[in-house]
Structure formats: structure tokens, C-alpha cells
């Protein structure tokens, strides 16, 4: 089989581009831990306030799990409950969140923690809070007229 010179260049370029893209995706997935949201658990969106653990939003210490705390967050237009969260520095926290009404976002600015909260689904993410300071939780899914005011605060403090 005879390949024209330009065909060879194009094939080389195509294969190299494929390898580079796969490397980027692979490094993001396996080294940096990026992954699609895990919505495995469901909840009746009309009964969020009565359903465990969303009946008691906030930070709870837990024993015998791979993480030290669970942070339960309920989003609703246009706020997060709780709105002010204090986390001891170094704590490994499982964030468990859902929404009572429409789709909201849950992004901790300046980190790679970014979840979509969908009615009827429970989103979760395990993160370690190593950096002291104040972090802003913002809603990054347009959810209505108050969307731009929808935020909460995390304070990472010394134990
Ligand atoms: Cu909630 Cu935008």
C-alpha cells in the first residue's frame, strides 16, 4: 500500500492528537480525581425536610467511616442550609447535598469541589479541608431571580 506523504503527516497528527487527549483525560481522572457526579441515592424532593439526614442539616462527627465528618446541605431558592459552616482544619468531610426545588449548583470557590444538585437526587463528595480560611459556596446553576445572591460560607478553623 502506498501512502502519500501528506496522508502520513495527517495520520501521524491524528494519532498523536488522540494520544494527547487520552493522556489529559486519564491524568484528570486518575491523578487529579475528576469524575462525573455520582447521583446513586435518591430522595423524594417534596419531603426533603422530613427525610434523614436532610431533616438535620449541618456538620456531624461520624465514627467508623472513611471520613471524620458529614456535612449535610439542603439547597433551596435562594439559599443553602446551613449558611455558615465551621470545619476543623484537616478534617475529612463527606458533603451530602440535595435540593428542595429546582436545580442548584454547589461550588466551593477556589477548590475543585463542584456538584450539581438535582431535585430527587443526592449528590456527595468527600474532601479534606487542609487550608485554613474562609471559603465561599456559590450556586453556579441559574435557578431564578435570586440566583446571584445564593451563597454560603465555610470557615476552616484550627481544631
Ligand atoms: Cu441556586 Cu442558582
In N-to-C order, the SSE pattern is HEEEEEEEEEEE
Mean pLDDT across all residues, rounded?
92
Number of domains: 2
Number of strands: 11
Molecular shape: elongated
Terminus-to-terminus distance: 70 Å
Largest sheet: 6 strands, mixed
Helix percentage = 10-25%
Q: How many helical stretches? A: 1
CATH fourth-tier homologous superfamily of the largest domain: Cupredoxins -  blue copper proteins
Output the radius of gyration: 21 Å
Return the CATH class of the largest domain. Answer: Mainly Beta
Key phrases:
binds dinuclear copper ion; 5-stranded mixed β-sheet; 159 residues; Immunoglobulin-like; 2 domains; elongated; alpha+beta
How is the topology of this model organized?
Elements: H1 5-31, E1 41-42, E2 58-61, E3 69-76, E4 79-81, E5 84-88, E6 92-99, E7 104-108, E8 114-117, E9 121-128, E10 133-138, E11 151-157
Parallel strand pairs: 3-6, 5-11
Antiparallel strand pairs: 1-9, 2-3, 3-4, 6-9, 7-8, 7-10, 10-11
Bound molecules: dinuclear copper ion.
Describe the structure.
- It contains 1 helix and 11 strands; from the N terminus they run αβββββββββββ.
- By secondary structure, it is α+β, with helices and mostly antiparallel strands.
- Strand 2 and strand 3 form a beta hairpin.
Amino acid at each position: 500500500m502506498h501512502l502519500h506523504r501528506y496522508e502520513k503527516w495527517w495520520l501521524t497528527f491524528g494519532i498523536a492528537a488522540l494520544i494527547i487527549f487520552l493522556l489529559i483525560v486519564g491524568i484528570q481522572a486518575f491523578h487529579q480525581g475528576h469524575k462525573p457526579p455520582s447521583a446513586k441515592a435518591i430522595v423524594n424532593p417534596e419531603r426533603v425536610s422530613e427525610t434523614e439526614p436532610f431533616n438535620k442539616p449541618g456538620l456531624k462527627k461520624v465514627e467508623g467511616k472513611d471520613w471524620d465528618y458529614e456535612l449535610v446541605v439542603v439547597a433551596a431558592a435562594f439559599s443553602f442550609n446551613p449558611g455558615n459552616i465551621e470545619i476543623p482544619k484537616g478534617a475529612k468531610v463527606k458533603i451530602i447535598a440535595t435540593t428542595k426545588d429546582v436545580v442548584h449548583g454547589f461550588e466551593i470557590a477556589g477548590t475543585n469541589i463542584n456538584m450539581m444538585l438535582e431535585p430527587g437526587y443526592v449528590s456527595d463528595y468527600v474532601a479534606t479541608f487542609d487550608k485554613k480560611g474562609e471559603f465561599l459556596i456559590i450556586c453556579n446553576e441559574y435557578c431564578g431571580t435570586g440566583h446571584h445572591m445564593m451563597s454560603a460560607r465555610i470557615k476552616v478553623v484550627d481544631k
